User: Fold these one by one.
Assistant:
Number 1:
Amino acid sequence: MFKKILIANRGEIACRVAATCARLGIKTVAVYSDADAHAKHVASCDEAVYIGASSPKESYLRWEKIIETALATGAQAIHPGYGFLSENDAFATACQAAGLVFIGPPASAIQAMGLKAESKQLMEKAGVPLVPGYHGANQEPAFLQGQADSMGYPVLIKASAGGGGKGMRIVDKSEDFAAALVSCKREAINSFGDDAVLIEKYVQRPRHIEIQVFGDTQGNYVYLFERDCSVQRRHQKVLEEAPAPGLSEAMRQQMGATAVAAARAVDYVGAGTVEFIVEQQPNGDMNFFFMEMNTRLQVEHPVTEAITGLDLVEWQLLVASGEPLPLKQEQLCITGHAIEARICAENPDNQFLPATGQLKVYGLPEHVTFERTAGGSTAVNVRIDSGVREGDTISPYYDSMIAKLIVHGATREQALARMDEALSKTHIVGLNTNVQFLRYVVRSDSFAQANLDTGLIPREEAALFDQEPVGAAWAVAAAVVHTLHAERAQADSNQSVWTDPWAKRDGWQSHGIRARVFEFEFHGEKVAAQLRYLHDGALQLSVDDTSGALSYSYGDAGLDISFAQHRIIAKTYKNSDVVSIFTAKGAAQIIAIDLLEHARETHEEGGRLTAPMPGKVVSFSVKAGDKVVKGQALAVMDAMKMEHTIASPTDGVVQEVLYQPGDQVVEGAELLKLGVAV
Ligand code: ADP
Ligand code: ADP
Ligand code: MG
């Protein structure tokens, strides 16, 4: 076994790999960029070496520098994690040439599976079922259109070099094909430097079911069962689970054997995932087709660890150091059910726009970080693999996934309940995340009933987006109680400045009854509240047309609030003037308006269109002089590995376009000037 390895990655996966190494007594070397100088993964390793500027090209993708660092620090092997260099066959070759072990498959296997089109040709020969489609070399638009027309719509255009859900376009009818091809090729060349595409029949009610495989250098192979990753947005996984609900034992074995055949066809070694698209027929029959093989550790590998009780990183290390696979197929079994949720810094209510900023509060449920659960023991119910800590800043340079929450239960129902509970105790303040959205997905009828396919999120749309689980009256009550509690805590901690609440500047007194007024903004609407201090010391709160007695106590679970004969337990946090409220039902945010502050400057964006995040301008769909309407797409930006359409905030006329496609812009940069339409 290795004595020291370098981890050529960042974020949660670098921390995850470091945890297994620490358990096995293997020393670790972290590498980091400017943006990551104080990142968690740096602290998780035994030593750390700076490798360059924040942009991945200047640091995590600089493989000469990484190899040089491994040699200089005496590391024997490099673990690439996922993303970055993990599927780069030239890097694997260069490691070998430098006398370092690349912890992954041989370069030849990476290359064989690297391009979707070529890998399909190989798989066809190995007898692996493929989705009907064209994956040849001819890239003539007219020829591809002809292929799509004869296949029948809908079809999917896919970048052969694509990954991470990028470079894909669904086309519903022949007339739309040409435009979709152009846009797909543009995204492919920008993201992958290769604009070759393939065309596939778009499978109906598709489920994404993938098989974890493992091979060793002695030619042994096993499959570690399946993961269902059907819950997706923009072709990216949101929730993953194992085993796949409703998959028969016969089909599990058939898919497992097919995945092993695919791995064997490329002399695969190490951890790999064979992804299948599964067609569900009205009579319940399921057909599976090969989509691609990911020649690395997968983001969602923890659900496999939870149901098998194995440490896949340990297996990777064993295999890479020449050991045989620790177990044979017949020694492997599934225990219970596991679900993973990807926690991302993004705003689901605004097209999942990635968010950057500081994690002011990062409150997590009780969990383990990573622990080997021998024999699939259910001792570990909640696991969190996190790449961040409270106080860390999410930069715009890397992808938006900050942590993974993995739950295990004896049954799917139990795992589901644990997931909801754990998400309800995940309190992140300071930037937008998808935590509440994940709760809605987990609680949706489709997910609860395991009615899974990749259309789940759009189908359940009404229950997933723009939800308001707390309500204005309760949000106000919680914010008022938060204020009272904070004032009390402050007074207790500093007796000398104790001022009684009646003396607050926003208080007033009339007929012996003292009162305070509060003003809030909730979902863009002003809400006023009046708090009265009655003679007996009781509190009376009025919000809109709800009025009633208010009382509270404070304990470990947060504030226990009674208002107008109802009771909730809420955790509240204040970050400048925003109060975040977390309850069992869900979370809310409310802005406390300081009545004594001068009229606040309003951020009227009227005639400006600004970049919602730092990134690169891909294109403008308008030019100076064009009339536009509110909501019309004006520009496309590329940020955090995704393309985002920027819509017009208002009706108007474009006066000036201020950037060129390809320009890098900072958050808030004015992209174009809009004038009033005449
Ligand atoms: P999974 O491991 O479940 O397949 P993804 O497909 O989302 O997960 O990809 C895993 C990670 O690798 C993500 O960070 C994703 O952004 C990144 N990634 C995948 N393919 C590429 C690629 N071709 N180029 C850059 N990043 C990629
Ligand atoms: P990536 O490399 O980006 O992961 P994949 O080929 O694995 O690309 O496809 C990503 C997702 O797109 C799948 O998980 C599935 O949801 C959807 N998808 C891919 N191919 C098809 C298809 N032929 N029919 C329907 N959906 C598909
Ligand atoms: Mg995929």
Number 2:
Amino acid sequence: MTAVTARACANIALVKYWGKRDAALNLPAAGSLSLTLAALVTETTVSFDAALAQDSLELDGGAADASRVAPFLDLVRAAAGISAHARVISANHFPTASGLASSASGYAALALAATRAAGLQLEPRELSILARRGSGSAARSIFGGFVRMHAGTRADGSDAFATPIETSMHERVRMVIAIVGGGVPKTHGSRDAMEHCAATSPLYAAWLACVPGDLETAEAAIARGDVQALGELAEANALAMHASAIAARPAIIYWQPATLALLAAVRDLRARGVAAWATMDAGPHVKVLTTAADADAVSTSLRAVSGVTSTMISTAGGAAELVG
Ligand code: PMV
């Protein structure tokens, strides 16, 4: 069968997804909102072949454990009514050893490439629902620019998908990513960490309770094109998510000393009138929302922080797409 290649960009949440209402279907407990990033791209090629004895996965040039993608490919096979196994070749065009999570771009690219290779032509909304099964944040990477993920209420997850937010504001913003390296211990995967938080953190309920209001505030800021209001909200939301993780028992602390130094540097930039608001995910790196005009100044300041191994500036990225 023919090989199909698709590419998708990673995204960074400004209102975080942190908690599930259904683990098996990967249904989020609340909505989220993100910015898709052009600098972090995954390209994936899929071919189904009846001659294959099992699914195979090649990741960044090396053989990888296909059991990570086989259950996802099963969903595609069931939808297409085929039984052939697949060859999956995936490459992350991320800065080398950045330690940035690639599950969002990875499952979005895989959802598009695998469905097309299986002869399916899904609408973006259906693709988003499928990508969600691989990773919750992947549902957002089907779309470009600012994206809203809807938690939905149905038990089958048919209303838990992402939609793009109509605005041209994404053209004015940049994300500066500061990579914290060196001696970083293995972090907690987001799947287990969310579950642990929900089960043990006394702040988990408070975290969930603040998400609907934060989504409203973020969407209103985007509707007004107000970068400052969006940035302030994003930083507060990320800190609330991390507070719930830190309060889990035992604690989940993703931050390194350099992470806190970066947060201080961002506050210092703001005190000097530079547009800069921080957000952090399931790792020590800090991503800073800024404007096109201030991105270079932000990047230069953050690179000077001790423990930071590199910085990069990303524009907003586009929707997942087929390549050739
Ligand atoms: O999509 P997952 O299961 O890797 O979870 C993503 C979790 C965060 O990155 C911390 C937040 C988010 O909304 O992307």
